[in-house]
Design brief:
The protein folds into two domains: 120 residues, Glutamine synthetase, N-terminal domain (Ubiquitin-like (UB roll), Roll); 294 residues, Glutamine synthetase/guanido kinase, catalytic domain (Creatine Kinase, Chain A, domain 2), CATH 3.30.590.10. The strands form two sheets. Strands 7, 8, 9, 10, 11, 12, 13 and 14 form an eight-stranded mixed beta sheet that branches. The N terminus is likely disordered. The chain is built from 13 helices and 14 strands. The longest helix has 21 residues. Helix 3 runs parallel beside helix 9, helix 6 packs antiparallel against helix 9 and helix 9 crosses helix 11. The protein is globular, with a radius of gyration of 22 Å. It is α+β, with helices and mostly antiparallel strands.
Amino acid sequence: MASSGTDSPNETEFPAKRGVESIEQARIWLAERGIEDIECITPDLAGVARGKMMPSTKFLSTSALALPSSIFMQTISGSYPEESDTFHYPPHDGDLRLIPDLSTLSSVPWETDPTAQVICDMHDHHGKSVPYTPRNVLRRVVEAYRERGWKPVVAPEIEFYLVKTNEDPDIPLQPPIGRSGRAIAGGNGYSIGGVNEFDELVDDVYDYSSAQGLEIETLIHEEGAAQLEINLNHGDPLELADQVFMFKRTIREAALKHGMYATFMAKPAQNQPGSAMHVHQSVVDMATGKNIFTDADGKESTMFRHFIGGMQHYVPKALVMMAPYVNSYRRLTTNTSAPVNVRWGYDNRTTGLRIPTSEPQARRVENRVPSSDANPYLALAASLACGFLGLDQEIVPDGAVASAANEGENDLPRGLLDGLELFEGETKLQEILGAEFMAVYGAIKREEYETFMKVISPWEREYLLLNV
């Protein structure tokens, strides 16, 4: 964050590569870097970057940036849901104002011309935050914690695949060719050689990230063929959601530069593991700075158990925010590495809720259920909302399990419609997430399901065409 202690800031007063505190500091920041264009972006309900690009001079002189409200009521395929008892369109599809969050200002390192980007919040024409937009949904949940004197802390881990470019969506995806000249095989978990196959791409990811002031804690090769995982440092939920949002853009751009795709689909390949977005969560007392999951003697607190209890009770009901597409549920199948439960255990990766080994003040709950296709703002909002409701209602969890928990029955909704029924019927989630958001989100997901049902799959052609 920039310093604001002088009238004439210079580069030494902007040690971070992203973020300023005022429009005047933005003017200097842009001028020092020779920025010609600026992207004013905001995540839609799918987490896709929407917005406007303009000359930096125009950005500094205008306060009238706007997008139509329908942008936030659109499905991933570009269609719109039908109106219902709970969901209605604004009568005139009025404009919403883009309000730049200058703390997110950074360069766009993959552009050939000097370009910057800034993430924006959405307000209506009265200046009020729009409740169904992703950043505002997450803010609402974080505010619920703040009102209790608590500060949630998160650390996401994002898995993704590198795949060959593919112009035909009917053809299954294939792993790319690495530096060895051969396609990458699966079974390379934590393989340094697997990462080294894509050294030049990884170097670009690091360079692009550094130029944007984004911090990568670690990068590893996962079990799938050309499946990688990036771990981020822990911090404020909104800041970390912003980072995941920007990392996804960054990784896709780096992959395109090297002639391949990066995909965050939950299950992009039939015989490969799915991709998750694991979320580590803890809660700090704002007055003392202490982790509320740990008592003074270093032992687990009652609030730690209540947080887990809330996760167990509410994660299935909020699953559609963590597993938002039909494809997401292809990952959540039994007898795979994916968790299909809301059980919890100590350092047990087969449970949906894992308690990593740590020092008492670093005690945390890892939610292993969300998939990497989820909008990071909404996945974090849902996960934290579940824990908050457990704290609020003092929900007692089941006992910890030490055995394999991802075999046998699936404790989670098996498909998108099942998840939606639980989601739309939960009044406690509505209280913390907002009724308007839940109505919009539910309508979009139902329309996406109907769009999916219009597509005839290869399985149907294979087994039904000549047999029924």
